[in-house]
């Protein structure tokens, strides 16, 4: 049996007055998504456990079959996996953002989307200066700091995107001796980066300088069974997003690199569809993750969100549905990882609609894949980390 999990990041939404109180999923032209709903079973999926942040990492970990409460250890370890840094037993991985600070306030959590090349120069300088731990270059503003010692786990840190515009002194790491040390590193980074040639150059080009680092989201290497150990299935991920790639590494999945998969609105949908079909030949289960609807949700752009949904439908799901019947048996599930409602501009906790079709999956008289229709589906409401049990086990 072949299994396909197609995830439209942040695809679910709330009704919008601009759309006559309908959601983007309800108005989008998406015959293939509706076909999955019509031919299969529908329901609502709770992807974010109560009390946890509605991040894509948490949601996708759940979708891949692991209870985030038990297995989620932070963004740092995922970042480490995605750039190929192996964590030792006692290592604690922090996400290291380059940020812009003016007048003691955090102005920009990504330092004007600093390039990877520029980041790597700054990382080099940081490593020359700081003797505790080690910095690693990631992608753009998203970099990594490894602290050798598990005491760093109890340091309280704040995500920089949550404190934009606020005085940094109110949000620096706290809770104990190591927190003081981490705080010192952050503060001192300002002195080191302020007049760095890379920043002087950036200022000349009218770009915001990366004049400080921010360490947060730390965690240890998660210990989990791979998907193959759990289900005996060989799996792959197709995604443009580092955090999801990182998850895949811990779960023993092959990351299929798709040229042109950017993780943004301009992602090459057709290429994703093509590589997914190719990956099916030598994998039993594939996770296809498309970031574009989430980006549109964050930008509050209704038109782009509808377009992203329609692109997933026609360029990824359509070709897959053509291809899958050539295998003996298959099951496909279509879902969002969390809503990114246009009105809210960021992720919410609400359950998402999902549909499963394929071998021995019963129809339940739902004719559209959307938030409202899913409420009437036969699958009711369930938690996401049990989805694979349902998909594979039944
Ligand atoms: Zn997401």
From TrEMBL:
Q: Please provide an example of a Pfam family that matches this protein in its UniProt record.
A: PhosphMutase
Named in its record, the pathway it takes part in is: Carbohydrate degradation; glycolysis; pyruvate from D-glyceraldehyde 3-phosphate: step 3/5
- Extract the Gene3D superfamilies matched here: Alkaline Phosphatase, subunit A
Q: Name one GO molecular function term.
A: phosphoglycerate mutase activity
One example of a Gene Ontology biological process annotation: glycolytic process
- Reply yes or no: does the keyword RNA-binding apply: no
Any signal peptide, and if so, which residues? none
* UniProt key word Signal: no
Domain Metalloenzyme as annotated: residue spans: 1-380
This entry's Enzyme Commission designation comes to: 5.4.2.12
Catalytic activity from the UniProt record: (2R)-2-phosphoglycerate = (2R)-3-phosphoglycerate
Q: Which UniProt keywords apply?
A: Glycolysis, Isomerase
Q: State which residue ranges cross the membrane.
A: none
Family designation: Belongs to the BPG-independent phosphoglycerate mutase family. A-PGAM subfamily.
**Function as written in the Swiss-Prot or TrEMBL entry:** Catalyzes the interconversion of 2-phosphoglycerate and 3-phosphoglycerate.
Q: Write down what this protein is called.
A: 2,3-bisphosphoglycerate-independent phosphoglycerate mutase
Q: Which gene encodes it?
A: apgM
């Amino acid at each position: 049996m072949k299994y396909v999990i197609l995830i439209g990041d942040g695809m679910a939404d709330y009704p919008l007055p601009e759309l006559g109180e309908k959601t983007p999923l309800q108005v989008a032209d998406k015959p293939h998504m509706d076909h999955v709903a019509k031919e299969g079973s529908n329901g609502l999926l709770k992807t974010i456990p109560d009390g946890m942040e509605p991040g894509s990492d948490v949601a996708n970990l759940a979708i891949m079959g692991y209870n985030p409460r038990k297995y989620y250890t932070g963004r740092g370890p995922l970042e480490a996996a995605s750039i190929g840094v192996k964590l030792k037993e006692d290592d604690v991985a922090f996400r290291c953002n380059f940020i812009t600070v003016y007048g003691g306030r955090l102005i920009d959590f990504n330092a004007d989307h600093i390039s990877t090349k520029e980041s790597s120069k700054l990382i080099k300088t940081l490593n020359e200066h700081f003797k505790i731990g080690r910095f690693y270059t990631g992608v753009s503003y998203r970099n990594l700091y490894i602290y050798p010692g598990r005491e760093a786990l109890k340091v309280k840190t704040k995500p920089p995107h949550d404190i934009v515009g606020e005085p940094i002194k109110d949000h620096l790491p706290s809770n104990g001796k190591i927190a003081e040390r981490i705080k010192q590193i952050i503060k001192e980074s300002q002195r080191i980066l302020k007049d760095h040639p890379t920043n002087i150059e950036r200022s000349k080009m009218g770009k915001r300088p990366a004049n400080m680092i921010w360490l947060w989201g730390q965690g240890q290497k998660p210990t989990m069974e791979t998907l193959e150990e759990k289900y005996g299935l060989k799996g792959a991920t197709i995604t443009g997003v580092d955090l999801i790639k990182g998850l895949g590494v811990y779960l023993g999945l092959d990351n299929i690199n798709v040229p042109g998969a950017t993780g943004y609105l301009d992602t090459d949908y057709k290429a994703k569809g093509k590589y997914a079909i190719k990956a099916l030949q030598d994998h039993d289960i594939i996770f296809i993750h498309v970031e574009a609807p989430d980006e549109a949700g964050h930008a509050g752009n209704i038109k782009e969100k509808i377009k992203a949904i329609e692109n997933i439908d026609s360029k990824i799901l359509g070709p897959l549905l053509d291809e899958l019947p050539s295998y003996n048996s298959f099951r496909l599930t279509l879902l969002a990882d969390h809503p990114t409602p246009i009105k809210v501009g960021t992720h919410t906790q609400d359950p998402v609609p999902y549909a499963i079709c394929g071998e021995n999956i019963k129809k339940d008289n739902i004719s559209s894949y959307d938030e409202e229709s899913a409420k009437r589906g036969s699958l009711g409401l369930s938690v996401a980390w049990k989805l694979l049990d349902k998909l594979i086990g039944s």
